[in-house]
Specification:
By secondary structure, the chain is mainly β. It has a single domain, classed as Pnp Oxidase, Chain A (Roll). It is built from one helix and ten strands. Strand 7 and strand 8 form a beta hairpin. The radius of gyration is 21 Å and the shape is extended. The two termini are about 30 Å apart.
């Protein structure tokens, strides 16, 4: 009703964020970030003399999904292609990647940090002669761990 006290706790909007890839590739501007997920694989077990005729479920190894980053293509901007081209027979320079969700003042409020990240796939833009969209490339990153800091 009008005149009631307003709740000052609001969910964060998801459109104001930054992505930093270690120190070498610096901060990059992205249009979209997705894949910030982790799951515990399920181990099903039943011992032979269990009176229940079903399995129990236990948490197993953690599994992290790949992160997908989408960004506009700029003239002369090849830093992610250069990073991808460093892959040589099971070796790649692994980087720390920091994704920060920002508040209205530009301060990080939630920070996801990826450990030992490296590019697994780069997809160039599609092209249409009658289109009027921005050229966007997609970078997929694998990593070995995800930590979250919420301030």
């Amino acid at each position: 009703m009008a005149g009631e006290k307003q709740d000052n706790v609001w969910p964060l909007p998801k459109f104001y964020f930054t992505v930093k890839v270690d120190k070498d590739l610096a901060e990059a501007t992205f249009q979209e970030v997705s894949g910030l997920d982790v799951e515990a694989q399920i181990i099903e077990y039943r011992h032979g003399n269990s009176p229940d005729f079903s399995t129990i479920k236990m948490p197993g190894i953690k599994k992290y999904g790949n992160i997908t980053l989408k960004k506009g293509i700029f003239k002369g901007d090849n830093k992610f292609w250069s990073w991808f081209n460093q892959i040589k027979l099971n070796t790649i320079k692994r980087q720390a990647v920091t994704i920060s969700l920002l508040d209205e003042g530009g301060a990080p409020t939630m920070v996801w940090t990826l450990k030992n990240a490296w590019p697994t796939k780069i997809t160039g833009t599609d092209m249409k002669s009658d289109g009027n969209e921005v050229a966007v490339e997609t970078l997929e990153i694998a990593h070995e761990g995800l930590t979250i800091a919420n301030s």
